[in-house]
């Protein structure tokens, strides 16, 4: 394995994407297990796209959930663990990585509704220490800047990977809250907040800390209370202690070797949630319905830039057909995820994988397919 000492400088890490080992001479999987019945036009299209995905030799397991105007479809391929020949299902737990940030966006909206925070507040109002560095030309970072990646807070603080305790395969596992605030204190602003988009894991983590402080509750307690329970997402979690040990998709590096799930013991709101396609379809449908005020408020546009538009940790795009698409992706050291939905079309999909295989083509093909069939 080739060690990279400063991988946080790479663009791939913007969405928690990274391969911790070099790709060896692997051969693509053949005779891939699946529960796809191959009966409908949708079944056949999914099969065609997934076959292309499995041309990437890094691919191991894959679960897809699709909802079209209230009707749900699930497709599973490959293996829970390479070499074990056990097919995943719609209850299989995967890491969802940075899709966690959309939950943080909804909690931010909840805190605004509850008047715990103000979206235009200077974030230093909620910090116990003095941070003169969290402004530029006297313009402070606001809550909204933490939730739309315009804060200019460094995406990863150098003291995370420079520390002696750093573990490459599980980079956040022993990074403490104290270390985080030391990194925040040493950070220097380089331009005005609210002007330029720069993806920042540390900004969203700070937002998570602020939410915990104003509610005097843990991040996951807030997620459970305001999102999971209302949407009946009973299998989404941080800890795997109560999960079915026989139905957890093992994460795999680029050599298809099992690699640890990333642990976030003292970082919150950035990438620690684990879920399955069944729960994530409930999440998509809840976001489409907007029956909860916290969800609808998280969808309000807060920034327009060259990269697209943002709400509270949601990315918005307009398709070539004129439909609005909401999305977020995620990744860890051995998992990838993609979530998209079209609110006007009441449709969307989730892709969960347990490998570092490139799912971007599959994501684009599914996006076009779901938009097409839901427009009929």
From TrEMBL:
SUPFAM superfamilies: beta-lactamase/transpeptidase-like (SSF56601). Residues 47-358 form the Beta-lactamase-related domain. Gene3D superfamilies: DD-peptidase/beta-lactamase superfamily. Pfam families: Beta-lactamase. The keyword Lipid metabolism does not apply. Residues 1-24 form the signal peptide. This is Serine hydrolase. The lineage of its organism: Bacteria, Pseudomonadati, Bacteroidota, Flavobacteriia, Flavobacteriales.
């Amino acid at each position: 394995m080739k060690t990279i000492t400063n991988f946080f400088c790479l663009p791939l890490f913007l969405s928690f994407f990274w391969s911790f080992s070099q790709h060896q001479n692997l051969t693509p999987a053949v005779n891939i297990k699946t529960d796809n019945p191959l009966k409908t036009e949708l079944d056949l299209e999914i099969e065609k796209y997934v076959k292309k995905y499995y041309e990437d030799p890094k691919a191991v397991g894959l679960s897809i959930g699709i909802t079209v105007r209230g009707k749900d479809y699930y497709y599973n391929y490959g293996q829970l663990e390479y070499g074990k020949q056990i097919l995943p299902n719609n209850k299989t737990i995967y890491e969802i990585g940075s899709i966690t940030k959309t939950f943080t966006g909804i909690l931010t909206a909840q805190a605004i509704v509850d008047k715990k925070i103000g979206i235009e507040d200077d974030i230093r109002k909620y910090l116990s220490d003095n941070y003169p560095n969290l402004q530029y030309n006297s313009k402070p970072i606001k809550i909204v800047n933490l939730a739309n990646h315009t804060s200019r807070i460094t995406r990863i603080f150098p003291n995370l990977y420079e520390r002696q305790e750093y573990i490459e395969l599980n980079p956040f596992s022993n990074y403490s809250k104290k270390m985080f605030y030391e990194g925040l204190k040493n950070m220097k602003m380089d331009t005005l907040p609210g002007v330029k988009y720069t993806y920042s894991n540390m900004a969203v983590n700070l937002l998570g800390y602020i939410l915990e402080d104003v509610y005097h509750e843990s991040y996951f307690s807030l997620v459970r209370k305001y999102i999971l329970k209302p949407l009946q997402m009973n299998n989404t979690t941080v800890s795997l202690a109560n999960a079915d040990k026989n139905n957890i998709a093992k994460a795999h590096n680029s050599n298809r070797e099992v690699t640890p799930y990333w642990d976030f013991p003292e970082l919150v709101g950035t990438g620690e949630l684990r879920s399955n396609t069944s729960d994530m379809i409930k999440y998509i449908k809840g976001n489409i319905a907007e029956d909860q005020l916290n969800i609808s408020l998280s969808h309000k546009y807060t920034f327009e830039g060259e990269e697209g538009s943002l709400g509270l940790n949601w990315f918005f795009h307009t398709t070539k057909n004129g439909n609005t698409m909401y999305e977020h992706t995620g990744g860890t050291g051995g998992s990838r995820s993609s979530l998209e939905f079209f609110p006007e079309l009441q449709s969307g999909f989730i892709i969960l994988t347990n490998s570092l295989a490139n799912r971007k083509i599959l994501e684009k093909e599914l996006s076009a397919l779901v938009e097409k069939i839901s427009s009929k």
